[in-house]
Write a structure and sequence with these properties.
Length: about 325
Amino acid sequence: MYKLTALANFLSALVAASLLAQPAESPLRKLTSIELPGPKGKRFDYVTTDPDDHFIVVAHMYGNQTYFVDTRTNQVAATVTDTPGVEGVEYVPDEKKIYTSNSGDNTIGVIDIAQRKVIKKLKTEAKPDGNTYATPFHKLYVSDERGKAEAVVDTRADTIIKTLRFDSETGMPQYDAVAKLVYVNLQDINRFAVIDPKDDRVLSQYPVGRCRGNHGMALDPERHRAFLVCEENNLLAVFDLEKHEVIQDLPLPGGGDVVKYDPGLRRIYVACYSGAITVIQMDDPNHFRKLADVPAQKKAHSLAVDLATHRVYVPLQEDDGAPASRLVVYEAN
């Protein structure tokens, strides 16, 4: 009996050790890839979703054009030109428009979704970049990064109604639909600014802890958290929007840029230029842990999340060093 018990214990320990040795399942699985029509090897920038029309909208910055990809067919539905140096792309559902930040000619482009073409351009400051839409106010906020400014656009009239100026280059802005406030990263001075969209006053600015070069931003408005990508010291900072302070920071691979949040899975995704997609899990609003740095192609620094399917879309400008123009689709595990 002793020998049988000892053998059983040995086999049980062997199985347990084998299970521990197995690699954990990756939180992302590559589903498919979609060839994009633009020039290969040229930098992409922001990606956004149009859930009403089932589009992923991709800014091909140095391809000087914008793509509408149909998520139902995984096919390119339209290519919009006249968006030189396009960086930011934002969907405005009540106007059925996409707004582009065109760094090539320092304009904000207005794309009519039905026509899939640019119908107007608004002249703005130097290097328009990220943008966000404050729905109940019918206002688009565009960070003029090099101009150290934030342009405020009335989306009903498609006019710039105000320009806010700062002592810093402006990173990604975001609209908080719960607090009804707009936030913008002040990346040169490591601060977080708060704007009231009712009258576009800058209410306050707050330091962002150890974070240096806070450029990318995503929000969880329900839990009062902002997620800031710190480009200069490779961190993701979790910022408490009620206490106005960083409560946790997590290490990133080099070149973290665009960050997105999936509230359904409580996951944060960061695209890193060095060749990884970092996946971070929210256990509760005060505790976050890294699930994985999922390997990706180098220079893949932007992404979007389809909140209905939880799929992640990543544009690629190279494939194992060879020039590419491709959108990779990942399934969340």
